[in-house]
Every structure is written in structure tokens, then in C-alpha cells.
Amino acid sequence: MKWFQPKPSSSVPQQPVNYPSDVVVETESGYWYIKGKSKLRIFSDRSLDSWQVDTLPGSDASVSKFKQVGVLGFRNGTLVRNIADGRYYLISENKRRHIVSPDVFEYYGFDMAYAMSVSQAEIDIHDEGEVLS
Fold first, then answer.
1. Taking the domains of the chain in order of start, what are their residue ranges?
2. Cα dihedral sign for 20, 30, 53, 15?
3. Is residue 95 exposed (0-12), middle (13-18) or buried (19+ Cβ within 10 Å)?
4. Cβ 5 vs Cβ 35: under 8 Å
5. pLDDT tens sequence across 94-125
6. How far is the CA of 78 from the CAs of 4, 18, 29, 38, 84, in angstroms?
């Protein structure tokens, strides 16, 4: 059940809005995660899906007062598989942690079938963390 029912597009705000922190706003130029007085561009639909949040309708004008400070990747705890090289990673502390042993899946209870398939560009938005073996 969604907590938010989108408004008709004719009522999308066309002036700066004082959005609360930790909401996602969909605008003409993409999705934005609002954090305090800043905004982070959400890199892809897959990274947005990892956050499992509803989005608020907005416009580029409605988020214009927020300073862009970076890009938001995958939620911590997300298991991803890079389709470019087949490697599996766990996103942890906003870093990609390469899983190099199948024992890691068993130890943590991960199911490889639930890994989100992602591109090299999506992997690269996260700094490299320590290897999980």
C-alpha cells in the first residue's frame, strides 16, 4: 500500500518547495533524494528500486533551492551482480564489497538469485570496499 497518492500532473509545484529530508522527488530531469538543504541525483531506476520508497511529484523548479552534492547509489545491504564481468558485490557503508567466495552467500544467508543485475557504471558510483571472502 502506498502512503502517497500522486497528484495530477497539472498540480505539480512549479516553484521552490521546502521538502523535508529523506524524501525522493521525481522531476523532469530525474529523481532526487533530498537530504537537509542538499539533493543527490539518483543514478538509475535500479538504484531507486533498492531504496523501496515512494516518490513525490515535483519539477526542476521545485527542487531548485537545494544544492546538488552528489549521486545516490544503492541502499546499504543491496546485493548486486555486475553484468559486465559477472562479479557479485554487497553494498555496505556506501561501498561495493566484492564477494569472492561462495561461502559468503551461505554465511550471510544471501541467495544469488535475488542479486540485482546492474551495469559497470552503476557499480562504479560506489567506492571499492574490502573484499568479502
1. 19-72, 79-128
2. positive
3. middle
4. no
5. 999 999 999 999 999 999 999 999 999 999 99
6. 24, 30, 25, 24, 18
**Each residue's pLDDT tens digit, 47-87:** 999 999 999 999 999 999 999 999 999 999 999 999 999 99
Bridge partners (DSSP) listed for residue 24:
33, 55
* Cβ contacts of 23 within 8 Å, gap of 6 or more: 33, 34, 53, 56
In the numeric block, the cell 513525490 is attached to: 56
Looking only at the bridges linking them, the beta strands covering 79-82 and 116-118 are parallel
The per-residue DSSP string of 18-35 comes to -PPTTEEEEETTEEEEEE
